[in-house]
Amino acid sequence: MRNELVEMFTEEKMTAVDAIIERHRDNPGELLMVLVEVQDITRYLPVELQRYIAWRMGIPASRVYGVASFYSYFSLAPRGRKVVKVCTGTACYVKRAGEIKERLKQRLGLSEGEVSADGEFSIEEVRCLGACGLAPVAVIGEETFGLINPDNVEEILEKASS
Ligand code: FES
Fold this sequence. Notes:
This protein is of the alpha+beta class. It folds into two domains: about 1-70; about 80-160, Glutaredoxin (3-Layer(aba) Sandwich), CATH 3.40.30. It has eight helices and four strands, in the order H-H-H-H-H-E-H-H-E-E-E-H. The protein has helices spanning about 1-10, 10-25, 30-40, 45-55, 60-70, 90-95, 95-110, 155-160, and strands spanning about 80-85, 120-125, 140, 145. Strand 3 and strand 4 form a beta hairpin. Helix 4 crosses helix 5. It starts with a helix and ends with a helix. The model has no long low-confidence stretch (mean pLDDT about 95). FE2/S2 (inorganic) cluster (FES) binds next to helix 6.
């Protein structure tokens, strides 16, 4: 099981994952913390990794899956170093969010759930980022961009990369 994960994430990252589990394994109540710390290293939590964490912590895999799938903070699919979140809530949708998302995907050469070849970007759709006054809105990494339009996606990607 571990060898498969080493192939997926490297030995160095799995050693760091093991150290996190080791620190919390006597306290299964700290599962949420384990998943947060592990995702910081691996960027996502595939089922194989969830099973490994469950096995090492001596808890059912269903419990790990329950937590990982409940919180939107966790990703079960690969993510880029910067996640592009395009809001498709109503206020953004009526202001061409769908078109903006397609333009971003095209510009980054991505399909839904994919990571760019350089590992830098992945794209996700989200429902209302709570900034409807700035619709349409997208978040790239830690930065929020409002009042965007299909013609300035190039510009916001450049800002996000700098
Ligand atoms: S609908 Fe997009 S920020 Fe609210």
